[in-house]
Fold this sequence. Notes:
49% helix, two-stranded antiparallel ribbon, 3-stranded mixed beta sheet
Amino acid sequence: MTAEGFPSSTLHTVGPTFSRPLLRALLQKKFPRTLGSCLRRTPPLAGDEEHMKVQSAKAKGRRLQQKIAADIREHFGLEEDDVRSTSMGAPGEDILLSPRARTVFPYSVEAKNQERLNIWSALEQAKRNATSTVAPLVVFHKNNEDTYVAMPWKNFLGLCGALPGVASSAPPAPNPWTREHVEQLKTVLDGLVTK
């Protein structure tokens, strides 16, 4: 024990790694009315606030990535191994897709769950991660708001033409049914009717 009444091992740990609740408990035990009451009014220890912001931001981003991966799996009927969220801070795409998943979802996803977003920086990051066979896609979200997507205009127009019930000014796609297909179908149907 030291002259102050604290174990000597405790005094050596005072610093950034010393937990605030433990410090408060020790001081309140020794000086219940003076230092203990002063501690309640002091700001957080240096570094604590910033550490929590980083951890909180990473957890927030992780939740969005996991939601995106789950939504892609559910919408396209894919397996867990086909669509995975990457670890936070890992370089490259935020959502890893298997070759099977890439055929039905040809996008390189960059997820941003932020209150303030530099959309141009996010789009640039998505472009760097995209290959020539996939389009860059930024999925972004803000607290108490819907989730949105940013993508190149030409890719968006391609999607609009592919969705049923969405009006498009693009010319209609050519009819895949040739005269030969129609004749074959008539022959098959006539055979079913005469049986």
